[in-house]
Amino acid sequence: QVQLVESGGGLVQPGGSLRLSCAVSGSFFAIKVMGWYRQAPGKQRELVASITSSFATNYLDSVKGRFTISRDNAKTAVYLQMNSLKPDDTAVYYCNANIGVSRYDFRFYWGQGTQVTVSS
């Protein structure tokens, strides 16, 4: 069974940094795009950043220049380095990945979410 396990959230002061990690476990054929979403209280979930299997990246405008998404060489983990954090970045962050359980069966999986709180 495929699972996404996240870590790295927490409380940080404005201007600080955090690094989120998401590891994929279980048996699978391949992983295509991986990404990070976030959802603040009373708001819709939004895509923060994504990275393809060929390492092409895409970012939400409000995090460009502050956040960096990456994935490891084995392509079984994705990371989000968050610098210059602002109170508006406070949200639950979710890892998402498009994973093939077989050659022709790709599905989207979600992590359990990790809280990021930016406050003085």
Description:
The protein has strands spanning 3-7, 10-12, 18-25, 30-39, 46-51, 57-59, 67-71, 77-82, 91-102, 105-110, 114-118. It is mainly beta and 120 residues long. Strands 2, 4, 5, 6, 9, 10 and 11 form a seven-stranded mixed β-sheet that branches. A four-stranded antiparallel β-sheet has the order 1-3-8-7, with no helix packed on it. Strand 7 (67-71) and strand 8 form a beta hairpin.
Helix content: under 10%
Q: What general form does the structure show?
A: elongated
Uncertain segments are: none
Could you describe the largest sheet, including whether it forms a barrel?
7 strands, mixed
Give the SSE order as H and E letters.
Answer: EEEEEEEEEEE
Beta percentage is: over 45%
Mean pLDDT: 95
Total beta strand runs: 11
* First-to-last CA distance: 40 Å
Please give the count of helices. 0
Q: What would you call the structural class?
A: mainly beta
Please compute the radius of gyration using only Cα atoms.
Answer: 14 Å
